[in-house]
Every structure is written in C-alpha cells, then in structure tokens.
Amino acid sequence: MEKKSSFALRLDKIYDWMAEEGIALLMLEDTESRRDQNIRWFTGHPGDALLFLSVDRQAILAAWDINLAKLHATLPPEAIFSYNDFDRKPSKAIAAVAKKLGIPIGSRVEIPSVTPYPLFLDFVGELTDFDILCRNKGSGAEINKFRAVKDDEEIAIIKKAAGITNELIDSIEKNVKSGKIKTEADAALFIEMEARSHGCEGTSFDTLAAGPDRSFAIHAFPTWTNAPFGTKGLSILDFGVKLNGYCTDVTITFARDLDEKQEKLIELTEKAAKLAISMAHNGTMTRDIAAAVDRLFSKSKKKMPHALGHGVGLQEHEYPLVRNSSENDWELSAGMIFTIEPGLYDPLLGGCRLENDVLITESGHEVLTTARIIRL
Amino acid sequence: MEKKSSFALRLDKIYDWMAEEGIALLMLEDTESRRDQNIRWFTGHPGDALLFLSVDRQAILAAWDINLAKLHATLPPEAIFSYNDFDRKPSKAIAAVAKKLGIPIGSRVEIPSVTPYPLFLDFVGELTDFDILCRNKGSGAEINKFRAVKDDEEIAIIKKAAGITNELIDSIEKNVKSGKIKTEADAALFIEMEARSHGCEGTSFDTLAAGPDRSFAIHAFPTWTNAPFGTKGLSILDFGVKLNGYCTDVTITFARDLDEKQEKLIELTEKAAKLAISMAHNGTMTRDIAAAVDRLFSKSKKKMPHALGHGVGLQEHEYPLVRNSSENDWELSAGMIFTIEPGLYDPLLGGCRLENDVLITESGHEVLTTARIIRL
C-alpha cells in the first residue's frame, strides 16, 4: 500500500473531526487581511486562497494565482480553481462550492472564526439554506490543536531550520567580535543573505536588531536602522529563518562593558531561561512555567512585560500559548515546539532577552537552538 | 494662535464625524492578527495598541509597549496606558475606558468592522449598557475615506519616499547592467540596504524579485531566491520603501533577448500604463480606467489577472480601489495617491508588470515614480 503523504494524513484528521461534529462543509481563507497558514498545512499551497473541505472527503482550492497553486498544491488539478471565477467573494464562492459538491440543504457549514461580523452577515445572507457556524472553539481551534503537535516531517524541517539558525548565531558572534558587523543594518542584512543562501524562503519576520540606545523596547521601532550595534551596553538581536514554510525564532543579547544594574538584568534573564527550560516536559502546564519565571523576577522587583513564549511552526507565533494567565490551559506534550524567551527592559539600562526554541519529547525536551548572551 | 498639528487636525475630523453620527465612543485596534494603521495616522504611535476616542474629544491609548508609545504618540502622557492594565482584553479595556470617560449608559459605541464574529459576541456581553456598532460602512470606512486623500504633510513625505525610490531604480538599472546585480537576492538585498541608508524604516513589503524562470507568477513564491535575475527573458522587480510610515510601490520589468510573443507582452503593458495614466484626473471613476485597460488587453486576447492599482499611504494597499468592478465607486480627487500597475503573465513566456505611483492634483496628475521597462 502506498504510504500516505503528510498532507493526506492531515486532511484525514480534519475529515474525521468533521464527521464527528456533523459538519458538511468547511471553508478556510488566507487573504491579505486575514492570514491563515492552515491552507498551506493541508495542501502545500503557500497562500492567498480559499480552501473548501467536505465531510465526504473532497477538497477544492480557489487560488488567487492559479499558476502558483498548480505548482504547489498537492491536490488534483481539477480541484484547483481561480478565485476570480467567484468574483473574489468568499460568500459567493462557498455557495457555488456547496452546490457543486451537492452539500445537502440544512447542513452545518463552518466559516473561519476570524470572519468579521459584517462579513458573517453576508454569509448568512448568501447561505440561507445552511446552518452557518463561526466559532472560537470550532474547526479553527481544532486545527490549531493539531498543528501545535508537530508530525515527524515537521520536526525534521524545524530541526533543519534550527541547524541553519545555529550556524547563523555562530557566524554573527564571530562577525560582531571581529568588527565586521558594526551596525543594526549589518546584522539584519547578514541574516537576510545567509538565510537565503542556506536555502531558506527568508526570515520568519522582520529581523529586530536594536543597539544599546534602542534595546529598551520589546520590539524596537523601526526593526533595524543604521545605528551602532554591539557597542557599550545591551544590544538585542531577535530573528528567525523560514525553511519550507517553517519558522525558527531566537533572540541573542550582546553585552559590552555593563554596569552593575545591567549585569543584574542579564543574570536574572539567564536564570529565568534555565529555570523555564528545566520545567519543560510532557504533561506540564505552560502557565506553571510562566508563573515560575514571573515569581523569580518579582523576587528582584522586576516584571517581564510580555509572555514567556509561544509555539512556532508555519507561523512565527502559534500554539501552544506559554503565558501566565488563568485562562491558558495548554499542557505540553511530545511534538510541541515553542519558544522560551524571558526578557527585562528598562528605558535607561536597555533591554535583555534570551530566546530559544524547545521541542518536547517523550522523555523530556530538546533545546533546538543555541541562542545565548554573548559578552563582548 | 498655535498651528494645529496634522494629528490634531485628523482627530478633529473624526470627532466631528462622531458628533454628527451620535457616536459616544470609538475603539480602534492594531494587533498582530488585525493590523490597523489608523492608530498611527491619528497619534504617531506605530502599532500594537488600542485607541479610544470619545465624542467629547478625549483620546486614550492602551499600548502593548508603553515605553515606545510615550516616545512616539502625540498624546499627553496621562492618556497613555499599558495594555496589560486591561489584561490585554479589548472588551475589558473598552468597558474600563467607558467608565473612566463617563460615557452615558445607552450611548452608541463603535468597534472595528474587522472584529471577528465570536469577539463581537464578547463585546456585546461585556458592554450590556451600550449600543454596540460593528459596521462596514461605519467609522472605519469613514477614516479610510479621509486617508485616501492625503494632506500636505503626507504628500510631502510620499514625494520624498518617491524620490528615494527613483534613485534606487536608477542605481538598480546601473547595477544590473554592470553585472553587479546578478541574482534575485542581489537585487532584494541591495534595496533593503539602500532603503535604510536613505533613512527609510525599511521596505514597504517583502521585495519581489523574480527572474525569467519565476516571473510568470503575479507574486512569485518565495519572494526572492538565489536564482539568476536579468538573464534572457522577463524579470520582475516589485518593491517599495517606507519612510516615516509611508509606502511607495513600484514594479520594474527587465527584458533581455525577447521573442516576438514576449515583445507583445511588453508592448501591451506599456501601452496600458500610458493609457491609464492619461485618464487619471480629478473626477474620473477608477473603474472606468481599469475597464479601459481591460478592453485594451482583450483586443489582443489577453487578460490581466489582478486589479489595475490601489491606493498607497501608511499601508502598501489602501484606498482608493482601482479595479474594474461594478461595486467599485471610487472617484479620483486631488490628494489621492495610488498605483497604476498593468501586468500580463504567462507560464511559458514569463511575466511583465509596470507599476508607478500617481498623485492626483487639482489640474491633472503627477507621476511620482519613474519605474519603466528596462531593456538589457
């Protein structure tokens, strides 16, 4: 028997779930104002499309760029349409697809939970014969749960991306130390170039390079400038690479000639990272890890102004959540990959963040990346 | 009397509109999954925040990064809060702000039209004492209309950004001709570097550099690789720079050793650009321009698979719409800045697009950028 592709196995999961939930038709949308990597996850097509899945296991893709879709989507050519065929209107497309696939009147049809309220009303108007669902705890949440646990193919890709990231960390350290990287721009462009020459699609997000004058902000604005980098004080470099769609996300802090208060920020951040990673294993609630870090910081009267981490995968931010909030009920399980990124920021002292990507295994964890505090 | 800042004048416009519409409180949101440049337009703060505006002309900003907000937002410090103060929940924040500002019970309160349906239900649940509005033709549409017509300060910034873009076009032409730019990566990195060294925040979007093997796609995927650029056939370079938040957007096509069919694509694209620009003036409906281009192409049995253009400003895609659709009722008026970007694509021949940014003036138009077909 032919081995099923990862894409086919993923589709199987959602078709099974649809059958259990009694959902006849599901629509996914990736568009400029509402990005959704699920279409890529299910089909390989990288974006700007509608994907329709029916409980009788048929998939239809309506793509903005049909040439690109035929190249990338792992669907038969006859299942790929141009979005223009439906006047680029999701509500019109879903009505046409429901008819084409013979979805019985009265069926439950689910649209994305991010559908804006006014657009939701359009769907209701267009699909009067169906029961429209638009729910936070519906198919989108279910797919996110699937995606939070990576399959073997995904783990292999992310490990490869992490390897490239680690090579980059080493070369950046070397080049900052040698004086070849002198500015934020030098660091950011070096990463852009190296990512592509290692076969990546690009970086996971705009590289954030903030020298000592700008590192006080969680995410400096603009993301990088021609300002000095790696000079006296704390410099932050937050970046990731994207390989076959999969993101890494790390932050290195460079430290030069620190005063006592800046040393304290570094010391606490390193301690927090170590503590958090030591707690990362199958069955742990992520909020407990984040709470432990918050407690560590508060003993020194410090407060971290952002979450401790987040999942990484086709998006640079995905599930599981890793934050100290009573509503966060994510429990770690084998196959999850997420960041641990404690950080402390001060308008006068500058900022310090240490971020690595961690994979949960059956027996514990594996830290995939080698970000660190680098002393100059 | 002190001259009002552009920000204050923009706030005046929306406060006046709120009074006319009987809206007591307005919420704007900029967040990772729902970007909204309106907060930057009204306050200068570049992002990740909620902005509340009340009909009695008070503004409150709840920012994810309060240090950054205090640096950038043109609001008094006492009007700037941390988003964490509201547990990072928009529905909780709006309830607290309504109380703080003394918004009378029963008032009309408007939330963004892009609010997902399930989140809309949260607002309704939290704000039981108010009349919640979430409308496509509400405040968001009104602000978009304001923003489609640039004020003098915006025109000055975009002209400066266009000047930088034009310098870049010239240097790219020189470097492709001299052989210094040989690959897609060379072109993309050259633009990244030059944009920043000219004082830009960065590029408007991921530069799209597609050599002859990949130019058939409207937006090649990935946006750039190490593939050859400017070799035999058609190469597309679509890029823009972002200066003080404002975007340019141009596309150059490089042509080398074309066959007759490829020459035809170029000829038609240039003709279409010329025709469209000649029609661009105060009072013209943008759909008439787009329809004229469609007719031109269809005479040669060609079809453009995307819109003819779009507004540019704080976003790389904004209003006015410039497309051939019966629902598009945008009429050009002085101060509008938008792209004209005819293009034709063929899986075998490659693609060709020519995109420039056009400003409508009282007496006609001004083409701000100098993108062109460059023959090698």
Topology:
Two copies of one chain form a homodimer.
Chain A: H1 6-21, E1 25-30, H2 38-43, E2 49-54, E3 59-63, H3 66-72, E4 80-82, H4 90-100, E5 108-110, H5 117-126, E6 131-133, H6 139-148, H7 152-178, H8 184-197, E7 202-203, E8 208-210, E9 233-239, E10 241-243, E11 246-247, E12 250-256, H9 260-279, H10 286-299, E13 309-311, E14 318-322, E15 337-340, E16 343-346, E17 350-353, E18 356-360, E19 365-367, E20 373-375
Parallel strand pairs in A: 1-5, 3-4, 5-6, 12-20
Antiparallel strand pairs in A: 1-2, 2-3, 7-10, 8-9, 9-12, 10-11, 13-14, 15-18, 16-17, 18-19
Helix pairs in contact in A: 1-6, 4-5, 7-8, 9-10
Describe this structure in words.
The structure is a homodimer of 376-residue chains. With 376 residues, the first copy, chain A, is an alpha+beta fold. In chain A, 36% of the residues lie in helices and 22% in strands. In chain A, the strands form 6 sheets. Chain A has a 6-stranded mixed beta sheet with strand order 4-3-2-1-5-6, sandwiched between helices. In chain A, strands 8-9-12-20 form a 4-stranded mixed beta sheet, with helices on both faces. In chain A, strand 18 and strand 19 form a beta hairpin. The longest helix of chain A has 27 residues. At the A-B interface, helix 3, helix 5 and helix 8 of A face helix 3, helix 5 and helix 8 of B.
In brief, what are we looking at here?
The structure is a homodimer of 376-residue chains. Chain A has helices at 6-21, 38-43, 66-72, 90-100, 117-126, 139-148, 152-178, 184-197, 260-279, 286-299; strands at 25-30, 49-54, 59-63, 80-82, 108-110, 131-133, 202-203, 208-210, 233-239, 241-243, 246-247, 250-256, 309-311, 318-322, 337-340, 343-346, 350-353, 356-360, 365-367, 373-375.
